[in-house]
Amino acid sequence: MTHPSTSEISRRTLLVAMSGLLSGAAFARSEGDGPQPATAASEAYTPAGFRHALPPEALEQPLATLEQPGALDLNDSEGLRLARMKTMFSLNADYAYSAYMTRHFVMPPDATPYPLVNELELNVSFLTTGGPEFREEYEQGKLMLHGSYTRVFLDAATLQTVDMIDVPAMNRQLTLAPTQFALSIPMDLAPIPHDPTLTEDLRWYRFGEDVHLTNIALFEPSESRPPRMDTSVWRVKHADLMDPAHRRLHAHYSFTASSYAALYAWTGLDVDDPTRVVTSKAGIKVHTIDALPALVRERILEKHPERVPRK
Q: Most buried pick, 127, 137, 165, 225, via CB within 10 A?
């Protein structure tokens, strides 16, 4: 399995990763495959190029507060950027706790599709104005985004924690390991350059009392990678987003992706195999631990308390 190095992560990939959506990261390993970072199901797996946990320096930095000058113009790139930061993270020197339930489905070409496994995920993110103490290219005073991500696997039918599943369509058994990674990276506030991986698509739209902030990515096939796509929506109350005095947003998130299963090395499938994997994710972003779903508190917070920075 090939993972992106930190230096290869684009701004869009960063935002996706910090939302708990590290595209292409291995979430399983099959018996008989080569050595993997996790040697047992009880050990956490960290993708190559990422830290396992945030350095102490990141947690010692004061949290950043960003000013919202007034109602945001979502048709303006800077207004939309601030809206996304307020929705996904916080402008108010807060930790943002984003929890997700992800469902993966296998779609063989000649059989009935079936659920593969569920993922329960928690991403804790925050902004600081840290300096070069944890990476030399950081500039003192640069706005920085930090995130600590934890994922555990649940049986698709019972939602009990699992460390092994059978995959009949791939004729293999997969051993699962919890995933843990973290990163700290500068948030460049210069205008976002054109990203050729993004199509010209709606960036936002009103939907009743809500506003939906959207992303879509379509990836062309290559000799080694089949085509894939993903799309996501962050949903918040429009009035709350526009109000500078409303500093803590409760947000809802949804994500859908479709790809050929061969995209994931753990499947053992050839690039031309037509089997597909469809992924559906739903989640929320809150600003207090008590507001997180009980399932997240039971399966992640109680078992991995060190993964959760707290104020």
A: 127
